[in-house]
Amino acid sequence: MLFSDFRKGLMVTFKYLFRKPVTENYPYEKMKMSERARWLHHFEPNKCIMCKMCENICPSKCIKVDIGKNAEGKRELNGYNIDIDRCAFCGLCVEVCPTKAITMTSIHEFADSDRKNLHFNMQELSHTGEAEEEQKKVG
Amino acid sequence: MSSSDIRTLELNMGPQHPSTHGVLRLVLRLNGEKIEHTTPIVGYLHRGFEKMAENMTYQQFNPITDRLNYITSMNNNLTYAMAMEKLLGVEDKVPERAQYIRVIVAELNRIGSHLIWLGTHALDIGAMTPYFYCFREREMIVDMFEEISGARLLYDYVRIGGVAKDITAKFMDMLKEFIKIFPERQKEYHTLLTKNRIWLKRTKDVGVINAEDAINWGISGPALRGSGIEWDLRKKKPYAVYSELNFDIPYYPEGDVYARYLVRMDEMLQSIRILEQCINKIPEGPYMMDEFKKVSKPIKPPAGESYGYAENPTGELGFYIISEGKNKPYRMKIRAPSFVHAYALPFMIKGSLLSDVVAVIGSLDFVFGESDR
């Protein structure tokens, strides 16, 4: 009696012996990301109008916009920092941005053993677009 | 040795036990191998969401609702959005296309949640194979969600007043493909489990709770329907566009682990039925109300209160929101089905064997992100 149950189950398993694997060979074959992928941010300093909307909407308060004054007394963007360690990747900062200065790329391989390396500054964030292009070429 | 010489044994199970599905801790008092008394201890995953809500704007809280029951993010978003729409009095103004998209993603997420439940439940009891098959099908659903929302787990897709982005043609193709494949694949799970002798021995007449006790303990969702009560909020108190769709409520009177298993298996096919109708019925039009399109625009609902509810894969999820007319809520109470089920667990496992505890825990489908909030 019990044998018939084993046979039924093993028949299913046996069928799968001749099928192709459904898994992806991940580190060697890169995943195809969606067009709307929400991963590491890309920031364009010259587009930013310093409205601080992204800083205000962020639910995890991980964006810091540093605004100072230049020699002529005009407002100037000194720095733009994102603490990716705290980021929830909800994409609200991208949605509120009136000039599309901040966007999200499909770069997702930035795991690190040191938390300090997950604080991205303006310099690093403005080059993520190029890194994404490179990633697409490889993939 | 007389029976009075047998001493009871206190046994601690969890919070790191692989079969307690997260961080449930049970203190069991055993008499031999029979359970005499159980104390469930929850709160290991407490993140203070209800308090966080009081310090956040209504839009900012939307991604936080994803993290309640992280397997059913779409359903959580939907429940929150409905509670907010009720508070704002715009329930009827949500575009019809948005309502259909909401039903599609909610039902897909229901199948996805039930697949995870089936895989882990079977794994707990000792059947390892269904786990891999379930995750293969779930991958298709996750890919679909990635296509429309950009994320694979925490979607933040259903918003107040509609959905975040319109669905794409590629998504519809993937959906049609999934509907075609899934019923065939589900037959495989039935072959592996439903009539299997070991499965029946482990699940039949285990963790029995009758209809009256189930109501008294506040159990909802598939666990309630497994006790023979035909209660589904989608049918009894229709929201979104469920009133226009045809589907049945599967229910079984036995009230044991096996009945709850059958309810969820049937529910997956009912969800496929709903999805088929949605594909044919979905109208063209806007996917979001214009006044909520801009996330930066603060939402200030009038002073008052509202309760939004929905039939989640685990049970009835509710958001009770009190507004003072500001852009932040005065108080938000979340009614989590997992929390209620966790407290009904001691009643269900009283007098049963220790090895049955994992079977009952699996059948109730806890997720402690939701229970501990």
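The interface with chain B takes residues 1-2, 5, 8-9, 11-13, 22, 33-38, 53, 57-59, 88-92, 95-96, 104 of chain A (CB under 8 Å).
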